[in-house]
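User: Sequence recovery, please. Input:
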């Protein structure tokens, strides 16, 4: 039931605030992260030397965002691997490796086979999944469910923000167990994450209409590029995937620092480029790097669409369009920056008259390899 929305995707984007809130619910008590599903695993978390995150598509981009939190907060080295690449390359894994799988459906065959492979190789597996009782969680040692609610549209939206939320909870939990975070630090991060639902809601209330209108003006565009650094990089990849998936426009995401190693050759006058801009206050070094990337592409005629923090005056002179997001801590920012990109992809596909819920050639869950 679309509940009065024009599409399931529109409904599911509108549910992004709840998806985060519901994934947090019951897992935070007085500033302390407590995930009952992970009870009894403290020895495991204390003893691991490495985490491998396996997933496909959007879930893998959530994993890339989670890597920053797991490394920064729990101080465990993390590799993020596409499930189908992981299992066919004889990876080095053992009992000191924790494999974290991420899957909305819990039925993705590539991810399932990778989890089985990891278990057989002696690794412990935790699954982050949105579907109760699905196959992947049943094959795992522990499950952290995302509570985004059923996701029907092929393009994953609310599950993505819920996956990042679950990974952040996991990172705080493991950081607490390993003693790499103090209770005060955990409480501070928890406060920042708890503010996310309201901040996403603010983007939807204040900007959705404008972004959809803007997307409509771009309906004839043939190619869109997305740039980001740090946690903005996986968000750039997610923005590009969503756009190609439902609007059939060529789209590519790049790490902004990679520009001069090749992709800048693509920039010609009029080329639209979305740039995820880090917070000037929270991440001043990254911010100035990204602003210079914007200047470089602008000098070559790119049409710059900046996703930037409210009040960021430094991007204004160089951007053709600014999509604002509320002020947030650096690791919280991706949960906000992705929202305008989801709205944009949906707006553009709608303007092209396409079926946003059921794009050609794709299935909601990919149960074949
Ligand atoms: O159900 P899963 O999370 O395992 O699905 C993984 C990908 O197939 C999925 O995220 C896909 O990339 C989406 N259609 C992207 O919007």
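Assistant: Recovered sequence (369 residues):
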């Amino acid at each position: 039931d679309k509940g009065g929305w024009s599409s399931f995707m529109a409904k599911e984007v509108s549910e992004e605030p709840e998806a985060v809130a519901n994934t947090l619910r019951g897992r935070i008590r007085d500033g302390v992260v407590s995930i009952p599903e992970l009870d009894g695993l403290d020895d495991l978390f204390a003893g691991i030397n490495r985490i491998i995150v396996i997933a496909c598509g959007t879930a893998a981009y959530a994993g890339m965002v989670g890597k920053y939190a797991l490394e920064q907060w729990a101080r465990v080295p993390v590799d993020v691997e596409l499930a189908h690449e992981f299992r066919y390359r004889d990876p080095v894994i053992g009992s000191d490796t924790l494999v974290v799988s991420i899957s909305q459906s819990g039925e993705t065959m590539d991810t399932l086979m990778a989890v089985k492979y990891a278990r057989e190789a002696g690794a412990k597996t935790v699954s982050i999944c949105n579907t109760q009782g699905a196959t992947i969680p049943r094959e795992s040692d522990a499950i952290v469910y995302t509570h985004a609610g059923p996701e029907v549209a092929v393009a994953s939206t609310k599950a993505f923000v819920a996956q990042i939320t679950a990974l952040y909870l996991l990172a705080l939990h493991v950081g607490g167990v390993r003693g790499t975070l103090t209770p005060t630090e955990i409480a501070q991060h928890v406060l920042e994450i708890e503010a996310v639902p309201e901040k996403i809601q603010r983007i939807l209330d204040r900007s959705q209409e404008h972004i959809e209108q803007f997307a409509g003006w771009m309906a004839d565009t043939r190619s869109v590029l997305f740039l980001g650094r740090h946690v903005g990089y996986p968000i750039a990849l997610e923005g590009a995937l969503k756009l190609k998936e439902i609007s059939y426009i060529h789209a590519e995401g790049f790490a902004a620092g990679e520009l001069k190693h090749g992709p800048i050759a693509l920039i010609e006058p009029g080329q639209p480029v979305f740039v995820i801009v880090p917070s000037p206050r929270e991440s001043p070094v990254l911010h100035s790097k990204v602003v210079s990337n914007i200047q470089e592409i602008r000098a070559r005629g790119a049409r710059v669409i900046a996703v930037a923090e409210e009040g960021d005056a430094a991007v204004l002179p160089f951007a053709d369009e600014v999509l604002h997001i509320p002020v947030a801590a650096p690791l919280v920012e991706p949960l906000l920056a992705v929202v305008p990109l989801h709205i944009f992809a949906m707006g553009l596909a709608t303007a092209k008259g396409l079926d946003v819920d059921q794009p050609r050639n794709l299935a909601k869950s990919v149960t074949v390899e």
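Residues 56-59, 103-105, 108, 111, 154-156, 241, 245, 365-366 surround 5-amino-5-deoxy-1-O-phosphono-D-mannitol (CB under 6 Å).
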